[in-house]
Amino acid sequence: GKVTLDYSKAAGFISEEEIGYISKLVEDAKEQLVAKNGAGNDFLGWIDLPVDYDKEEFARIKEAAKKIQSDSEVLIVIGIGGSYLGARAAIEFLRHGFYNNISKEERKTPEIYYAGNSISGAYLEGLLDVVGDRDFSVNIISKSGTTTEPAIAFRIFKKKLEEKYGKEEAAKRIYATTDKAKGALKNLATEEGYETFVVPDDVGGRFSVLTAVGLLPIAVSGADLDQLMAGAAEGRKLALEQKFEENDSLQYAAIRNILLRKGKSIEVLANYEPSLHYVSEWWKQLYGESEGKDQKGLFPASVDLTTDLHSMGQFIQDGARIMFETVLNIEKSRGNVVIEEEAVDLDGLNYLAGKDMDFVNKSAMNGTILAHTDGNVPNLMVKVPEQNEFYLGELFYFFEFAVGISGYLLGVNPFNQPGVESYKKNMFALLGKPGYEAQREELLKRL
Ligand code: PA5
After folding, report:
1. Which of 158, 173, 246, 404 lies deepest, with the highest CB count within 10 Å?
2. Residues in the active site (predicted)?
């Protein structure tokens, strides 16, 4: 099996000629990407990452994970955006659906919580309560080493560690993933003697899940890093070597751009498994930050189904016709429950007796796809054979490669994010950060 794209249900919205025209542009974009002579070409480290990574560091990540597993009941993963979403997507996709809530005996690895992905004091206070006086470690992740959200959270948890263990012992429980040479976090790590892992210069945040950024927390959760990398390597091989006709990643980039050019300016990623929620969050960052610039782009949205069929389902079926839907379909469900017969059929469900929930879920999915198609929402499906490390690695690569191609088709630099800076400048000015005095005056007048 492999990760595949099925666009047969979008056939009524796209002609073979259109696919023919765009396939040429896609091949050109691929050539640029692989030859590294297109926009943003100093951020293409992710292309070869699955086969060309730092093996010594990879081994050190596994060692650090073992140490954390042996000396900590809780791991706090501090990071935001690209320094957060990949790890969470992977852990929720791969591990138990109630990972933090099942017994320690069953889980065998530390509870994992995320911090520094908002500026909520209430959230931090709550998380400090959850840690309580249990043994814990911290993985602080920031490529720049200067992002406000994780920096604040790190201050708080660093203090808690130092109060509990003393400065020297606390330093042994802090793992810093950051730039190899620069930034406040790197300086702090050197000063205090934390173990550090590197975010490579040529890998942007949203493409960093297969670096230490994602790999250390994923390893702590007990997932298999070798399988994850092997799957990504397979995804790379398929993306780089297959011709357009057999290349699902290229086809995905092609189809979504055809649909965009006909006014479908929103792509809704739909899943039917709650454990895929954060894969969608990761995907939204990857696509939104890569393509939404120069007043262009597809707006990436997501729904968790069937949950949201009871809320957003109305809009998708019947609202403004501005979207297409991409279903993430896990072909072989990893858990299942059989619906049993009851002697008296008071709830009217005996017609499902002997059927399992996956059959019901897939029937809901297939019925919904046809209903949405009838409602003029073109439907794409990304099929994932199984919910395991290998196919997640392949899926990550599938989407990363496609977004590079898609950005080039759109005529943007898919590897920068200039728009992320605007809010930061305003926030610093309003907070009174030194150096922002003039902007502060301006902004205060406008508030
Ligand atoms: O993709 C990006 O560049 C951003 O989402 C960053 O990952 C995010 O802002 C966090 O940055 P940093 O890792 O420098 O703290």
Report:
1. 404
2. 289 (proton donor), 424
